Amino acid sequence: MIRSTIAGIGMYVPENVVTNQHLEKYMDTNDAWIQERTGIQERRYAKRTGETTTTMGIEAAKIAIERAGITAQDIDFIVFATLSPDYYFPGCGVLVQRAMKMKEIGALDVRNQCSGFVYALSVGDQFVRSGMYKNVLVIGSEKHSFGLDFSTRGRNVSVIFGDGAGAVVLQPTQKENQGILSTHLHSDGESAEILAMYNPGTHANHWLENSLADFEEAELGEMFMSHAMIDKAQNFPFMDGPSVFKKAVVKFPEVIKEALKANNLKPSDIDMLIPHQANLRIAQFVQQQLGLADDKVFNNIQKYGNTTAASIPIALCEAWQEGKIKEGDLVCLAAFGSGFTWGSALLRW
Ligand code: UT7
Predict the structure, then answer these.
(1) The pLDDT value given to residue 100
(2) Residue of 112, 135, 300, 306 with catalytic role
């Protein structure tokens, strides 16, 4: 039986460390609030110019490719997960293909926000399992710092997010005790608007109360992005944090248990859980629900904040680099976020 396995993994975080104290200069917030509610102490922000979601993804990809023992020209397919692309279109995947001088391979962008990496990994896994591709590059990368509201108005969102990238190379394996055992993907669009960035977009208030710009009055050419939207700060992400939190603490354990059940395993079989780094309190709640010891759950939100599609590959890479994941270990990845979308992956390292 062919499975896909992570043959190489890499991560990249920008040099620029931004502490909670630094954010106090921009908005009414404080280190105690941020640490108590989220666990975050600092995050990284990319350089304003010369560093993009794609370039960070490439830095992570170079390491993953080298560790897989191949070259960029060996990659057969790219899956790039992000909510902060370099361009509205085309996606980041083609920019990776161009910059890394790859062959004219397929490049797919995934827009599943916090669960983007789990979705992207699942897509890559299917291509490898089916025998269609031998080297699939999966990237999760975000440059959040470019699109956040750094005034007090946006503080519930802006203090949480950070920049960075992670990447893996998937290859086929026939080893009994290695590779991705299964992936489990879900969505519930009922609450699509409670963690979202509405503009720019083509919704014209179709899904929303009349709280946004008046599209009836807008001139052709002013509908996609207008001065009014910017004046009303409608070009920034919106989040009803407590509602997201309540759903996350239900769906994380649920989807992890689903993965375990599908493989006739139980929580105590998990050697390392890598939860999407949304909030340390969510991860601690999930840990407690599953009865896992401290050394079975890896968290680095303290250093990097929430890097959305990049958070799982960054955490997985760091855990492995620190020697916390060894060959044959049962590793569980799990994510929940905007959409809502959520998912899990269970793999033998
Ligand atoms: O990764 C994608 C998925 N996202 C998540 O999973 C996030 C889930 N949600 C959360 O992590 C939490 O809801 C937050 C960390 C976003 C917020 O924590 P909370 O404990 O739910 O706080 P809250 O939103 O209920 O706000 C409590 C208070 C409010 O003030 P009042 O109304 O009680 O006076 C906020 O205005 O804290 C205030 N507040 C802040 N104060 C200082 C909100 N943001 C800040 C801030 N600094 N940055």
Answers:
(1) 98
(2) 306
